[in-house]
Design a protein that fits this description.
The complex is a heterodimer. Chain A is mainly beta. Chain A has one domain. Chain A has three helices and eleven strands, in the order E-H-E-E-E-H-E-E-E-E-H-E-E-E. The N terminus of chain A is likely disordered. Chain B is α+β, with helices and mostly antiparallel strands. Chain B folds into five domains: 159 residues, no CATH class; 132 residues, PAS domain (Beta-Lactamase), CATH 3.30.450.20; 101 residues, 2-Layer Sandwich (Beta-Lactamase); 72 residues; 143 residues, Histidine kinase-like ATPase, C-terminal domain (Heat Shock Protein 90, 2-Layer Sandwich). Chain B contains 18 helices and 19 strands. In chain B, the strands form five sheets. Chain B has a five-stranded antiparallel beta sheet with strand order 3-2-6-5-4. In chain B, helix 1 packs antiparallel against helix 8, helix 2 packs parallel to helix 8 and helix 15 crosses helix 16. About 2% of the residues of chain B have low confidence. The chains are: A mainly beta, B alpha+beta.
Chain lengths: 194, 760
């Protein structure tokens, strides 16, 4: 499978004003997305209040297969692995911080209600029921300001990138390929300016 | 040296550096227990696979997709990699062994290919057909009638729940509107209870709970319970928690104002909340209406929904599910293929390895390593073959050691024989006795240096027929003797033979002895030659000395009376007639003169017979010769005498008087031979390698005919008109008693040359 990177336009000036940064951050590129089977994963890292937070959205995440799985009552989970990394020219890129975010939904066909929950590194962050499918879609695919790391781990004027890998459980494949064939990748680079 | 037995043991790889495995740690393929354990483990895996496959429908989707499918996929990949690795490794090995022309490589390749082919074709066919069958079967699980039935059932259950929820919600809203004008803060709740009781009594709802906005109560922020009215039919496990949460949620403005509380087998409670608002729109409280669905109803609804969900989950997961079955199938196929490959290799190795080991051991034994053994790997026919081979190798090694011992003994004896032969050859070469051996075929096999010298033969005649060699004129007597000895076969034939050699006679005492083997067969003749010429000469000299002694004794005694008688006759006839007196005087003078001559002759004989033994002292030979030649100075005016003395001649032990006499005798003979006119050279030389000094007396006289040269040294032989003929006999005797020799030869360009050799 081939993942293609798509660059997004620069938005760092407005972002700085919007979030009232304690640290000044200059983004070389705000975000980039990787596309897999029509799905896009847009990533936007922001450093604010001494923390690197990431907002990301998986568009077209609820495919027909996923919707069928949810409607069948299967507990369906979207797992997102977020990694703050720094490129290394001569070796593997260095991972500075990593978190795993999951969003799970289970549909009760009797009550016709969705029970949703989110965990961060295995810790339940939120849980709520709903009857709205749009709310389910947003719950599963849109995340705002997920804390990834503190800025103390970053070097001034250093170039970093945030990589987000998403996959769905249960997997609807004939054969399990151990190297993540169904992963959706998103990536965004930024330069940290204190 | 003790023998070291080297065993050939099976090798796992062609690498030579790996230490040999001990008998206690046999490789897997040679250990029946491990093989049985492996087969048992394989069967257990297959049984486990079947068991898991049977339980597949009951497995949770997560477990099915995340664990079973993952495990099966990983196992399939691992086995596929293992199969490819095993096949590739063995193909490479077979190719390499084929290129190296390793024995049985082609046979192994054929066996493995045959077994693999026999397994691969049906396995792949079964896999293809089975996969299609599984895929088709999975598709057929989900059909339209079943889908419609389950969807409808779920729809009915869901709609029922939904309608009951909506109904409860409507009641809650209606009650909330009815309570809009009620003062919820009134401590007397009876009016309120009376207001709510008809709804419960008429079973519109099973329970109504009213909250008013006020102080926080427990987990209810800003709400406090006012009153609740419940029907007695409610199950005992009921609690207020769900209603409290829903009331708070409704007051907070949430659109989600309904909830379902499951009481297990007792049934479900359907809650609905509505905010009580005053006329001015202010929220004064919350009412939560609850309906109760009995256990049977809830259970049946749940079952319908569960059946629908199970069906849909299977439909959603039909690909992973089919993947699980296909993975099972693929795993079994791969297990069969791996097993077939391994079995093929195992059988091939099992068959070829003992033969390879035997072939390798045979090559080692062929190369001379007779202590090579093959370690038995089994007790079957190959084991018997190996045992027989080892027995054969052991017997060969024993025989080889016996042969080596015999060889060593033979070599020792050969060395002894060679030493003895060399010793004999040395003796034969050193002795003065000539030895010639002739084999049964008449070819000369041996001739020592003495024989070659005596017979004037080249030693290269070895191998030539004796008849041809001894056909030479001077050697014909030897040929006849050889032929006679060959015919006689028993008694040695002895004969004295004179062979002309350089105008002289060489006297040989020859003994021809026939060689007869232990079986009596003739093995040739050996001819032994002794040079007896000096002995004969000595015998002659001794004889002549005896003659001279007797002659002197017999002759000298009557000479004096004869001389006295003659003197007496002359004195008697001194006064007689002149004629008679003259006659008598003349006769007496003649008698006296001849008697004197006879006396001189007798004196010489006596001297020859009674010559004393030499008294040798170290003497300067050159000076002795010079002093002797000085006696001739001025005597013979027409004779020139020249002395040539080598400077390196050492002192020689000799009797100076006797040697002086020798020189004088030879010089006198030379002067006489030259008739006192000519040139004489007396020369002294040193022959250091020969250990002798030579005195050469050469003249340029007429020379001596070769036929007379041997006679020169005999007593009473003289070519002079006068003399006794004892001079050269005395010279030879003096030289002989000094341990030397004297030879006569021609002088170049003319004359005679006497050569004396004296040891120094």
């Amino acid at each position: 499978m081939t993942n293609r990177l798509k660059m997004q336009p620069r938005k760092h000036e407005g972002t700085k004003r919007l979030v009232g940064l304690v640290f000044a951050v200059a983004f070389v590129s705000l975000g980039s997305v990787a596309r897999a089977d029509g799905q896009d994963l847009s990533v936007m890292p922001i450093a604010r209040d001494g923390q690197v937070v990431v907002s990301f959205e998986l568009s077209e995440g609820l495919t027909e297969d996923v919707r069928d799985a949810i409607q069948s009552g299967l507990p369906t989970t979207f797992s997102y692995e977020l990694e703050l990394r720094r490129s290394t020219a001569t070796w593997f890129d260095r991972t500075i911080a990593a978190v795993t975010m999951t969003a799970t939904v289970r549909f009760d066909n009797l009550t016709r209600r969705y029970q949703m929950s989110r965990t961060l590194d295995g810790r339940v962050e939120d849980a709520r029921p709903t009857e709205d499918q749009d709310a389910v879609r947003r719950w599963m695919t849109r995340f705002e300001h997920v804390p990834l790391s503190t800025t103390s781990a970053l070097e001034a004027d250093g170039e970093y990138y945030v990589r987000v890998r998403a996959h769905t459980q249960p997997r609807n494949t004939w054969f399990f390929w151990p190297w993540g064939r169904d992963w959706v990748l998103g990536r965004a680079k930024f330069t940290f300016i204190p | 040296m003790p023998a070291t037995v080297t065993s050939i043991t099976p090798r796992r790889t062609s690498g030579q550096g790996r230490p040999p495995q001990s008998a206690s740690r046999r490789p897997f393929r040679d250990n029946p227990r491990l093989i049985l354990a492996g087969i048992g483990a394989l069967v257990a895996v297959l049984v486990a696979i079947l068991a898991v496959a049977n339980r597949t429908p009951r497995l949770s989707p997560d477990f099915l997709t995340e664990f079973v499918l993952y495990a099966l996929s990983a196992a399939d990949l691992t086995m596929l990699v293992a199969l490819v690795f095993v096949l590739a490794r063995n193909i490479v090995k077979l190719v390499v062994e084929g290129r190296r022309t390793r024995p049985f490589a082609r046979f192994r390749a054929k066996l493995v290919a045959l077994l693999l082919g026999m397994t691969l074709v049906p396995a792949v066919l079964v896999l293809a057909v089975g996969s299609e069958l599984i895929r088709t079967s999975v598709e057929r699980w989900f059909n339209a009638p079943m889908d419609e039935i389950l969807t409808s059932a779920n729809q009915i259950a869901g709609d029922y729940y939904h309608e009951r929820q909506m109904l409860v919600s409507d009641h809650a809203k209606r009650i909330a509107r009815a309570l809009a004008s009620v003062n919820l803060g009134n401590p007397d709740v009876r009016p309120l209870r009376d207001l709510l009781a008809p709804d419960v009594t008429l079973q519109r709802v099973q329970m109504v709970e009213v909250y008013r906005v006020g102080r926080a109560s427990g987990s209810l922020p800003g709400l406090e319970p006012v009153v609740d009215v419940a029907a007695p039919a409610l199950p005992p496990g009921y609690s207020r928690a769900a209603a409290d949460r829903l009331a708070a949620q409704a007051l907070a403005g949430s659109s989600d104002t309904r909830s379902i509380e499951t009481l297990g087998s007792s049934g479900d409670l359907l809650h609905a909340a509505a905010v009580i608002r005053s006329k001015d729109g202010r929220a004064t409280g919350v009412v939560v209406a609850t309906d109760y669905l009995t256990g049977d109803l809830a259970l049946r609804s749940r079952r319908m929904t569960q059946a629908f969900e199970d069906y849909n989950q299977l439909r959603v997961l039909k690909r992973p599910l089919a993947g699980v079955y296909l993975s099972f199938f693929l795993m079994v196929t791969l297990l069969i293929l791996v097993g077939a490959t391994w079995m093929g290799l195992y059988l091939a190795k099992r068959i070829t390895r003992p033969v390879q080991m035997l072939a390798a051991a045979a090559r080692e034994i062929g190369a001379g390593h007779l202590d090579q053994r093959v370690e038995p790997q089994s007790n079957d026919e190959f084991g018997s073959l190996v045992e027989a081979f080892n027995t054969m190798a052991g017997e060969l090694a024993t025989s080889r050691r016996n042969v080596e011992r015999s060889t060593i003994e033979l070599e020792r004896k050969h060395i002894e024989t060679e030493i003895r032969r060399r010793y004999t050859e040395t003796i034969l070469e050193r002795i003065t006795t000539g030895v010639v051996s002739v084999d049964a075929a008449g070819a000369i096999t041996t001739i020592n240096s003495a024989a070659a010298r005596l017979l004037s033969l080249d030693r290269a005649i070895v191998g030539q027929p004796a008849r041809a060699v001894f056909d030479r004129a001077d050697l014909q007597p030897l040929g006849a003797l050889l032929a006679g000895a060959g015919r006689a076969k028993t008694e040695p034939a002895a004969q004295d033979i004179a062979i002309p050699r350089q105008q002289q006679e060489l006297h040989l005492a020859v003994v021809a002895t026939a060689l007869v083997g232990d079986s009596g067969a003739p093995e040739g003749v050996v001819l032994v030659l002794d040079d007896v010429t000096p002995l004969i000469r000595a015998q002659k000299v001794a004889a002549w000395r005896e003659v001279a002694r007797r002659l002197a004794h017999e002759i000298k005694n009557p000479l004096t009376p004869i001389q006295l008688c003659a003197e007496r006759l002359r004195r008697h006839f001194a006064g007689g007639p002149p004629a008679a007196k003259d006659l008598v005087d003349e006769c007496a003078a003649t008698i006296v003169g001849e008697v004197e001559s006879l006396k001189d002759l007798v004196d010489e004989f006596s001297q020859f017979a009674r010559m004393p033994a030499p008294r040798t002292v170290p003497t300067d030979l050159g000076q002795l010769v010079a002093e002797t030649l000085a006696l001739y100075n001025g005597i013979f005016t027409d004779v020139g005498i020249e002395q040539r003395t080598a400077a390196d001649v050492p002192l020689v032990r000799l009797d100076a008087e006797q040697i002086r006499r020798v020189v004088i005798n030879l010089v006198d003979n030379a002067i006489e031979a030259m008739e006192r006119r000519g040139q004489i050279i007396v020369e002294t030389q040193l022959d250091a390698p020969g250990g002798v000094v030579r005195v050469i007396v050469a003249d340029n006289g007429p020379g001596i005919p070769p036929a007379e040269r041997e006679k020169l040294f005999l007593p009473y032989y003289s070519t002079k008109r006068r003399g006794s003929g004892l001079g050269l006999a005395i010279v030879r005797r003096i030289i002989a008693e000094h341990g030397g020799s004297i030879e006569v030869g021609d002088n170049m360009p003319r004359g005679t040359r006497f050569t004396i050799e004296l040891p120094c």
